[in-house]
Amino acid sequence: MISKSFIKSSFIYTIVGALPLASSILLLPFYGNQSLLTTSDYGMLAIYLTIAELGRVLFTFATDNFIGLNYIHYSNSEKQKETFIGTSALFMLLYGVILLLVLSSLGQSIFDLAYPGKNINFFPYGFASLLTGMLNGNFKAYTTLQIYREKPLPYFWANITQVSIIITISIVGLYLKPLSLDAPIYARLTASIVSFIWAFSFFISHGKLTIDFNILKRLFSYAAPLYVYYLLYWVINNIDRYLILGLISKESVAIFDFAVKVTMALELFQSGLAGAISPKVFKLWKSNSDNPWGTIEINKYYHVYALINIAIIPLYYFILPIAIPLVVNNTALYSSFCFLPILFATRATRIWYYYLSSPIFYFQKTKIMPIVFATVAVFQVGLTYMLIKLMGINGALWANFATRLFQATLIYLYVRTFYKLNINTKKMFLFPGINILCLILLFILDLNVFLNVAILATITSISSYLTYHKELDISSIKRMVFNKD
């Protein structure tokens, strides 16, 4: 039986872990206030925030994963554990500082080469963002370690403190010094400094700050493939903004980024729900002697996952055009409404990603993932550049959608080599496919927003009923809700 403490800690790790990403969404009403931030400045803020995330990936070298997953390996001996923690923390710090100095000296030259004639400065905001990323990398290692130490309360308070600092200083700072990037950039830097002190204080008190070359060798062996994977993941998720900046304008970056962020709540919901499903599915594989094939019991979780994800889109689509004008007064950002169908379609393809990636992680077939993501990254960069040149922002949206489909296809072809899917084609491919096709057609037709919602809701209702009418039993739903056998 699942204990209450397990449920409580799982809730903390899932919800609180999403707060750093959610903070960007919560601050949109202030970033979208034209008296606090211009459209052009918001566009550059989007660029600097992605630089901070790139910095976190670059400077950490996937040590956050290494220190978390290998904690149990070294926990039998207190001396070994201290050396392990100290070596990992000291490596992160030294590697981060050296790389920060190198990139800082090259930063302006890289900007000038990438954006000739655009007059985009690396200092001070680019440097502040890189430093933020480096400090956050150490903090990420600390929070990951708390999960494997089964310490949900330090994890909770550390993340809550960081997010509270970001939101408070950003809002107060924007009102004290409007039409400047100082507040949003330095709010994150301040939060990262506090978080770094918090994290490194733990590393000092629980570890021995020395370099053990055996542990370092193990770190390089483990982390190098993941490092490449995370860099490629960053490219796939962020490169479109840089291409839009170079090929169009700062304002276009703002509109594109705003559209992506307002639909990001769906991805947070998807990842949270997938995280809740995974342990149940993993237990079923384990009870089936780790046989690499799908069963009715396993697939039904993903059938429900597909239904919930598709059904929620019309509701969310209805809410956004009503809610956004109430909290965002920068009318230039309202042009992002017409992008919502293609972005919802892109989010819907994640159903297939989570379904197909689950056996990869359970059966530990992850070695191919850097190759898959490298192929996807090259595909996206080339396609995004070409389509932006032809179609502007619409080109970036089409390229983003095509990239997600291409990614899912490559993963599908790989999974088939070691895992028998036993797919219910109607539920896992036809049902999401019909609704994705509907969203694509609505984007092409460019109708009134609320007419789009009405059409989508109708198609979703009909397709849901035709696909799931046998499972949509009211008495069964009541038993699930009220936990009755």
Could you explain the architecture of this structure?
With 485 residues, this protein is mainly alpha-helical. 81% of the residues lie in helices and 0% in strands. The protein has 21 helices and no strands. It has helices at 4-17, 19-26, 28-31, 39-60, 63-69, 71-74, 78-114, 125-148, 152-176, 182-206, 213-247, 250-262, 264-287, 296-327, 340-348, 350-362, 369-391, 393-415, 425-445, 449-468, 474-482. Helix 15 (340-348) packs parallel to helix 18 (393-415).
Describe the structure concisely:
The chain has 485 residues and is an all-alpha fold. Helix content is 81%, strand content 0%.
Features:
485 residues; 0% strand; disordered C terminus; globular; mainly alpha; single chain
User: Could you tell me the number of beta strands?
Assistant: 0
- Give the N-to-C terminal Cα separation: 15 Å
Strand content: under 5%
User: How many alpha or pi helices?
Assistant: 21
Order of helices and strands: HHHHHHHHHHHHHHHHHHHHH
Largest sheet: none
Mean pLDDT: 89
Shape: globular
Gyration radius (Cα, Å) is 23 Å
Topology of helices and strands:
Blueprint: H1 4-17, H2 19-26, H3 28-31, H4 39-60, H5 63-69, H6 71-74, H7 78-114, H8 125-148, H9 152-176, H10 182-206, H11 213-247, H12 250-262, H13 264-287, H14 296-327, H15 340-348, H16 350-362, H17 369-391, H18 393-415, H19 425-445, H20 449-468, H21 474-482
Helix pairs in contact: 1-9, 2-9, 4-7, 4-8, 4-11, 4-12, 5-8, 7-8, 7-10, 7-11, 8-9, 8-10, 9-10, 11-12, 11-17, 13-14, 13-16, 14-15, 14-19, 14-20, 15-18, 15-19, 16-18, 17-18, 19-20
